[in-house]
């Protein structure tokens, strides 16, 4: 990954990571300054570039400014299971940097702009800034909830239900970082990639998408997905967005009455 430039002064407030952290707790100017100092080193990862490879040691995090990646496990049979999509505002290196060796691989699925952050610098920031560490705890809890929903997808939901749930999850996550409109988003995955995430073959995903379109629940124009009937799609996929929603946190320094 090539280093391209430092983060411009004053641009941190519009960063997708800040948008995500602010959903949990309002960051003050000192918090933003500390985060800005942390995100100074910017790098580019090109499409199909391995950012993390399972089994190797990593002591560096990468904060995503733009672009998408997949976190996945490759089995001995050659089959791939995608466990999550990494998108703007996410941190690559959770949990790889906290194990002796990475337990999943992460690969860019398009060109990505990333901030390279040594793990020790990240840890120092969390120790120094209570608001940031509190927001990151919520960030980690949200990631765990996403994984739990994906387990339910694979274990109990029918194929059409899985796809409906996945589409609404993508829309909601992208809206949180300003990368989707009220009803539309650009799908970063191929149909084969969607299948590797929700446990279906590429042709099966194609048939399920066609069925959702026939039922008037979605429309597609190339990679752009538009949700036409969100209420019906939520019922079909049993999608309850609470696991992606803001969690109120008392501002730093205040005590319960």
Topology summary:
Layout: E1 2-6, H1 16-21, H2 29-38, E2 41-45, E3 50-52, E4 60-66, E5 69-74, E6 80-86, E7 91-92, E8 105-108, E9 112-118, H3 119-128, H4 130-156, H5 159-176, E10 184-186, H6 191-198, H7 202-214, E11 218-221, E12 224-227, H8 230-237
Antiparallel strand pairs: 1-2, 2-9, 3-8, 4-7, 4-9, 5-6, 5-8, 10-12, 11-12
Helix pairs in contact: 3-4, 5-7, 5-8, 6-7
How is this structure best described in words?
It contains eight helices and twelve strands. With 257 residues, the protein is an alpha+beta fold. The chain folds into two domains: 2-143, Jelly Rolls; 158-237, Orthogonal Bundle (Arc Repressor Mutant, subunit A). It has a five-stranded antiparallel sheet with strand order 1-2-9-4-7. A four-stranded antiparallel sheet has the order 3-8-5-6. The chain has a three-stranded antiparallel sheet with strand order 10-12-11. β5 and β6 (80-86) form a beta hairpin. α3 crosses α4, α5 (159-176) packs across α7 and α6 crosses α7 (202-214). The protein is globular. The mean pLDDT is 89.
Oligomer: single chain
Please identify the top-level CATH class of the largest domain: Mainly Beta
Judging by the overall fold, what is the CATH architecture of the largest domain?
A: Sandwich
How many distinct helices?
Answer: 8
End-to-end distance: 50 Å
Strand content: 15-25%
Low-confidence stretches: none
Principal-axis shape equals globular
Radius of gyration: 19 Å
Biggest sheet, spatial arrangement of strands: 1-2-9-4-7
Helix-and-strand structural type:
alpha+beta
Query: How many domains would you count in the coordinates?
Result: 2
């Amino acid at each position: 990954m090539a280093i391209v430039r430092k983060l411009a002064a004053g641009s941190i407030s519009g960063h997708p990571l800040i948008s995500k952290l602010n959903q949990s707790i309002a960051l003050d100017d000192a918090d933003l300054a500390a985060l800005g100092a942390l995100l100074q080193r910017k790098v580019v990862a090109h499409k199909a570039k391995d950012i993390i490879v399972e089994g190797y040691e990593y002591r560096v995090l990468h904060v995503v400014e733009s672009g998408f990646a997949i976190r996945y496990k490759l089995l001995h049979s050659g089959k791939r299971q995608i466990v999550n999509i990494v998108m703007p505002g996410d941190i690559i290196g959770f949990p790889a940097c906290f194990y002796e060796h990475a337990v999943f691989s992460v690969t860019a699925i398009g060109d990505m702009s990333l901030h390279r952050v040594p793990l020790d610098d990240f840890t120092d920031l969390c120790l120094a800034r209570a608001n940031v560490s509190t927001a990151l705890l919520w960030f980690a809890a949200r990631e765990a909830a996403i994984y739990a929903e994906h387990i339910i997808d694979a274990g109990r939901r029918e194929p059409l239900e899985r796809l409906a749930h996945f589409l609404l999850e993508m829309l909601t996550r992208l809206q949180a970082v300003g990368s989707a409109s009220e009803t539309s988003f650009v799908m970063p995955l191929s149909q084969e990639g969607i299948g590797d995430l929700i446990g279906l073959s590429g042709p099966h995903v194609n048939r399920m998408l066609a069925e959702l379109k026939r039922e008037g629940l979605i429309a597609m124009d190339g990679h752009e997905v538009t949700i036409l009937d969100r209420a019906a799609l939520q019922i079909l996929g049993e999608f309850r967005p609470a696991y992606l929603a803001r969690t109120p946190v008392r501002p730093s320094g205040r005590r319960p009455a």
